[in-house]
What we know:
The protein is mainly beta. It has one domain (9-391). 8% of the residues lie in helices and 41% in strands. The protein has helices spanning 96-100, 165-170, 255-268, 318-322, and strands spanning 9-20, 27-45, 53-54, 62-63, 70-72, 82-84, 118-123, 127-137, 143-156, 183-184, 191-204, 207-218, 222-227, 242-243, 251-252, 277-278, 284-285, 289-301, 308-316, 337-346, 353-357, 383-391. Strands 1, 2, 7, 8, 9, 10, 11, 12, 18, 19 and 22 form an eleven-stranded antiparallel beta sheet that branches. A five-stranded mixed beta sheet has the order 15-21-20-13-17. β20 (337-346) and β21 (353-357) form a beta hairpin.
Amino acid sequence: MDKDFEQPSVWKANLAFDSELPWHGIVASAELLYTKVNNGLHFERLDLGAPTYRDAANDGRTFYWQNINGTTVDPDGSGPLRPTIGNARANGSAGVAALADTIPGYENVTGWAGDGVLLMKNTDNGRSAQLTVGLSKPLVDTWGWSLNYTYTNATEVSPLTSSRAISNWSNKAVFDPNSDEAATSNYEIRDRITGSVQFRKAFFGDYNTIFSVFYEGRSGAPHSWRYVNDMNGDGYTNDLLYIPEAAGDVIFTGGAAMEAAFFEWVTANGLEGYRGDVVERNSQRNSWVNQFDLRVSQELPGFFKGHKSEIWLDVMNVGNLINKDWGRIQYNSGYSDRGAVFFQGVDPATGKYVYNFNADPVSSSNPNGVTSEAWTDWESRWSLQLGFRYKF
């Protein structure tokens, strides 16, 4: 922990208003919420050591492999010798204890593990802005409804997906593994629409029956495209994918046919705008989500005068109850990333990256394939909830 580390904190400001319109008791509302990171968390790995190679022909990335220009056969064990990355990080665990002694306040600490000296620091990068606008008619007599739209733009340095420092350092897609650059948040829901309709009527004496339908439509969660394997040699498979600008800019182990398949995949996945560049972290989106919930509630007599009870049934994701393909939520991984290319190494003669690409979905028989779409389990299922309360 940095000696000047401060408790995480943010600055927040919001502005909101509600106004009843002159028609049918409809209420218009709007709210703007802005949050700026004051002291966030950033994890820096101190034992990476000096880079062993700096790219000058592709995207300018730094590498930590023992040998970026080694040779081996293709990953499937066939074909001629080709350029390949080394099989170990160059700096290993040498000098970890000595390096840790350079951290103020830790000079006399002993018993360091053999790898992974992480320094937790503050960062002020990251912010979010949310704008919500809506119309509603409160349930006063028989009918009530609401319709709202929320736009969110949020960035973060670390999604903080773990309780371990090394995992928080590695569980995000990166170009520079130690940078505290903010990118689109793992948790950003860019567009969200919600709507509800309620109908109330006393079918039995003065005991109300209420039927309610709630709709939520929202952007899918963001995700990144990365290499299937450890590309830069820091020991983790979290490296953002570089898209060559044109044919011939990258060497493909499968020749022209593999190169053509790769660029077809680029077009099909909306990555044309990243030709000659690195695909930004969390720049892609999962599928749009549509879900409906239904509630039926019924008031009942209480045990004493003036008392009432209420029982209700909620059907969550009712569309999935009707059709198993409705109401599903696309999900890639807990780290919001998908793999696409096996990085073979750097060609020593030209300095070009060497790619091995297979558009077929990753599987036990095709470990270097593209991560296919996946769907959440319990969130994509319909469910029932029964509730009861007593009012007095």
